[in-house]
Amino acid sequence: MNILEIIAKKRDGMELSKDEIQYFIDEYIKDNVTDYQAAALLMAIYINGMNERETTDLTLAMAYSGDVLDLSSLGNVVDKHSTGGVGDKITLILMPIIASFGIPSAKMSGRGLGFTGGTIDKLESIPGYNTQIDVVSFIENVKNVGISIMGQTLNLAPADKKLYALRDTISCTESIHLIASSIMSKKIAAGANKIVLDVTCGSGAFMKNKQDAKKLADIMIKIGKLSGRTTVCVITDMNQPIGKSVGNTLEVIEAVDILRGKYMPKDVEHIITELGANMLVLAKKAVDIEDGKTKILENIRNGKAYEKLLQLVQNQGGDVSYIEDTDKFEKAKYIVEIKAKKSGVITSLDAYKVGTLSNYLGAGRMKKTDSINPRVGFVFEKKVGYAVSQDEVLGYIHADDEEKVNYVLKQELFEIK
Ligand code: URA
After folding, report:
1. Residues 255 and 320 in one domain
2. Would strands 393-399 and 334-339 be described as parallel, antiparallel, or unpaired?
């Protein structure tokens, strides 16, 4: 077997065997296959696709290319994952809810990259919260308080890491087969047996339309089936940011407000009830989806989910007084109103634009080594569907730099008709 034959086979639209896929991953990890050979194969896969068996073989080869977490001592762990979005604080809200039902919530999360935010960056905006704990403490935390959320400190799916970075440089990020195997390889390596996936769809997501989102969901469900992991996908809208806030501290504050029952944005309610109900059904804590949805909201109302958030933060070294009183979080230097330029109905609040502008303010990073500013971002008071009058306040820019405020104010974030 050699890499040239493998590339040529896929270039000519042929099916790769399990051994050929395993060979490619093994040799690529050892640097015996070069980046330009891997790039050629990825492009051939992008153009000619892969069948379900090939996609599953690639997923498993990447999943087992590094450490694989064993969570069997915790029992029935149900994991969730989003394919990426803007203002996505769902993990911060949903994992404490799930833990409040006694379902072990052991979650490894990532940092944000590009226009999408990451849960770990959000948690690190809580003073003291340690995302870099070791796996033994991670499992102990879950045993003690039912929940732990940590960064990916292990060498999880290194083949995916290497290939993902390469895809980014050769216009191969948008391949549905490559996205499906990339996501599922990390989920499998992170030890999940039951997985609920939030497949985001819209301008602020990898999948821009419903048809592609459905295709991605179907492939991931199939990979789950072929690899012995029960996988459920829920397709959710990502044309506008989720909830009111975008930015690290701002999203933590919003998650706390929601868990304390202060308010509940309609889109957040939809996502947490859909994903949460599926998680409860998989963990046998709800008889069906409707029962699950009712239970999810009930454990916000009765304060049990908020209690779990406090335990999570305390147990990981975070200062809970910031959760109990979110006014303690340091504010950005400038908090500036965004006003409606005319009267009418808001028809768009573009998630992609909001994501890229919040990165420009400093909330995210364009390359892995960039540092982030936890204070900056946006809070929106009005979103799609609202009727507004000229000069009405639609939201706020939170920024530390006046020049950046002026630049953002010049952008057309909202479409009003
Ligand atoms: N998220 C991933 O982990 N991988 C992809 O390829 C796309 C989104």
Report:
1. yes
2. antiparallel
**Main-chain phi, psi angles of 300, to 5 degrees:** -85, -50
What confidence score (pLDDT) does residue 165 get?
86
Residue 58 CB–ligand 1 contact under 6 Å:
no
Q: Which ranges in 106-198 belong to alpha helices (H)?
A: 119-123, 135-145, 158-169, 176-189
Q: Is the CB of 45 under 6 A from ligand 1?
A: no
Helical pair 210-226 and 176-189, crossing angle rounded to 10 deg: 40
Q: How many structural domains compose the chain? A: 3
Inter-residue contact 366 to 386 (CB < 8 Å): no
Q: With a 6 A CB cut-off, is 131 part of the ligand 1 pocket?
A: no
User: To the nearest 10°, the Cα dihedral for 177, 179, 183, 189?
Assistant: 60
DSSP secondary structure letter of residue 156: B
User: How far from the centroid of its chain's Cα atoms is residue 361's Cα?
Assistant: 20
Query: Which amino acid, residue 181?
Result: S
Mean pLDDT by 10 residues, the chain (417 residues): 97 98 98 97 97 96 94 92 92 98 93 79 96 94 96 88 89 90 94 93 92 96 92 97 97 98 97 98 97 98 98 97 98 98 97 94 82 95 98 98 97 96
Task: Tell me which residue of 202, 200, 212, 198 sits closest to 348, measured CA to CA.
Answer: 202
Residue 167 falls in the annotated catalytic set: yes
Instruction: Tell how far the Cα of 55 is from the centroid of ligand 1, in angstroms.
Output: 14
Q: Which residues contact 136 (CB under 8 A, 6 or more apart)?
A: none
One domain for residues 132 and 233: yes
What type of residue sits at position 275? L
* 145 and 9 both lie in a single domain: no
Sign of the C-alpha dihedral, residues 247, 249, 255, 260? negative
Query: What is residue 154's predicted lDDT score, i.e. its pLDDT?
Result: 76
- Looking at residue 373, the DSSP 8-state letter turns out to be -
The CATH number covering residue 383 comes to: 3.90.1170.30
CA distances to 119, 125, 206 from 260, in Å: 19, 19, 32
377 CA from centroid of ligand 1 (Å) = 24
The pLDDT of residue 366 is: 72
Q: What is the reported pTM?
A: 0.93
What value, to the nearest 5°, has the Cα angle with vertex 123 and ends 119 and 128? 160
